[in-house]
Amino acid sequence: MIEWNRIVLLGREAGSDGSVALAADQRFVELLADDVERIVGTYRAYGRRGDRERILRRFRRGFRCFAVEEERGLVAWFWVMHGIPRYLDELAWLFELDHSLVWARDAFVAPDRRGRRMLVAMMDAATRLDRRPRFFLSDVSAGNFLSLRAHAALGFRRLATVQSLRIGPLLLRSRPPACLPVPNGLRTAQRWLWLNPEERDWHRAQIA
Question: Angle 187-192-193 (CA atoms, 0-180°, nearest 5)?
Answer without folding.
Answer: 60
